[in-house]
Amino acid sequence: MIATWWDSLDILMKVLWGITLSASLIFVIQSIMTFVGLGGDGGFDGDFSTGFDDLSTLDADPGMNLYTFRNLVNFLLGFGWTAILLRDRIASIAWLMVLAVLVGLALVAVVMYLFKWLNGMQQSGNIDVFRAAVGCQGRVYLTIPAERKGEGQVQITISGSVREYNAVTDGDEIKTGTPIKVVEVLNSNTLVVEELNSLIV
Length: 201
What we know:
single chain; 201 residues; five-stranded mixed β-barrel; 44% helix; 17% strand; elongated
């Protein structure tokens, strides 16, 4: 059935379907990798990428980096599906290609804007951590070594949401499950905490 359908296509449609299906498959793989935290571009970058990051590792301004493999895939998605869906409606191949290219470029622009917006949201979130984390209470998730000799992990509640951060302490070792309070924020991922009981006089 599939073989019969494929044989019925002309050369142009075979090329378009090949490009579109390949781009769609890569897009699905990239999306899965992004949402499980493995990185949206993974090992596909080659020479196309100069630093485009994904949702889990948004950097300074990744959305404005045009020459990336992800953007190439997005362009091919918009180009391919537009050409396939409108092939029977637009008689002129030249006009069909022009429209497909425009849709591909538009899709790239939309995705770049989305990443830029998400990057701004993440930066705002980091600023909120510095303002809101101090004084918050929670529990140790992974034991915190004494006197800043290593990092553990804590779960604290900020603005009604439970979040997990790396943590150090200036005092004795704090074991898993111990109630803690945040006394300082070192950076967007690391807090200084004290055992909550030690703060009660």
